[in-house]
Design goal:
The chain has helices spanning 49-68, 80-84, 88-99, 108-122, 159-165, 169-185, 196-205, 213-216, 223-234, 238-241, 255-269, 281-292; strands at 2-9, 13-22, 25-35, 73-78, 104-105, 130-135, 140-146, 149-155, 190-194, 220-222, 273-276. With 293 residues, it is an alpha/beta fold. Strand 1 and strand 2 (13-22) form a beta hairpin. Helix 1 runs parallel beside helix 3 (88-99), helix 6 runs parallel beside helix 11 (255-269) and helix 9 (223-234) runs antiparallel to helix 11. The model has no long low-confidence stretch (mean pLDDT 96). Its EC number is 3.6.1.11.
Length: 293
């Protein structure tokens, strides 16, 4: 058995997955998540010192947790907030000094590809007709199959970035329209979603006071479910939103923007249901590391 840890440093959260491979199967040993908001002040083009400090602390904590759990290797990647930051080298050096980890900064294409591979590894889907949606804090990735292979798109619009920008739903739809039109023409008729916004939707719909990945993975949301949750959350004050079952208080200020993106994508793709996947980028990273060994 090979036990591996993977850390995903996102714009809104930092996540850990420790898993082991045995006889071709991946078994989750532990997961963890911290709302670190590395993308605080993302519009400035630079990572802010307090955000870098708290994220570095979270990464260090997760690294030590993975080692304590017996991970032979720990890999770490960073996405939108870091790849867009003018001072990203400062953050990478900060983490390296504290943990020894060499963080790999993923391009939007790599992020989308890893998310897609995670979904197809964890759910029994028809690849030719499935599009994968990954709504992050800083960007949103879409991936689907075309005759020549996997097509990926990264739109620089996520729950944190959209919250700060104040763009209207119509402007969001305009940003996604050409990509969704192409996916539809390629035959994408099924949508699977990953990422904190999407899993939170499943948790809210089921009123999960305690998050249960087994009840979230494979859960199906209708467009009416998504619209209802969006209208409900948008009509609340922040303090009230923080009390909603299934919604982490740290996501309460950006969840409306994230769900807006989900609704826009569902409508633009012309699908009336969204399947939620717990398997995502982190699982792909671990599978890749296992195969490398």
């Amino acid at each position: 058995m090979k036990r591996v840890g993977a850390i995903d440093i996102g714009t809104n959260s930092t996540r850990l997955l420790v898993a082991e491979e045995s006889d071709g199967h991946l078994r989750t040993v532990a997961t963890n998540l911290a709302i670190t908001r590395l993308g605080e002040g993302i519009g400035s083009g630079e990572l802010l010192p307090p955000a870098m400090a708290r994220t570095t602390d979270a990464v260090a904590g997760f690294f030590h947790e993975a080692v304590r759990l017996g991970a032979e290797t720990v890999v770490a990647v960073a996405t939108s907030a870091v790849r867009d930051a003018a001072n990203r080298a400062d953050f990478l050096e900060l983490v390296k000094k504290k943990t020894g980890l060499q963080i790999r900064v993923l391009s939007g294409t790599e992020e989308a590809s890893y998310s897609y591979l995670g979904v197809v590894s964890g759910l029994p889907i028809e690849q030719r007709s499935t599009a994968v949606l990954d709504v992050g804090g800083g960007s949103t990735e879409l991936s689907w199959m075309e005759p020549q292979g996997l097509n990926t798109v990264s739109v620089n619009m996520g729950s944190v970035r959209l919250t700060l920008s104040g763009l209207s739903p119509a402007e969001v739809a305009a940003a996604f329209h050409p990509h969704l039109n192409r996916a539809r023409q390629a035959g994408a008729a099924v949508l699977v979603g990953v990422g904190g916004t999407v899993t939170t939707l499943a948790a809210i719909q089921q009123e999960l006071a305690i998050y249960d990945p087994e009840r979230v993975h494979g859960f199906s949301l209708s467009i009416l479910d998504v619209t209802g949750i969006l209208e409900r959350l948008a009509g609340m004050e922040l303090a009230e939103r923080k009390k909603v079952a299934g919604l982490q208080p740290g996501r309460a200020d950006v969840i409306v923007a994230g769900v807006t993106i989900v609704k826009v994508v569902m409508e633009g793709l012309g699908v009336d249901r969204l399947t939620v996947s717990e398997w995502d980028l982190l699982h792909s990273l671990i599978l890749e590391e296992v195969e490398r060994k």
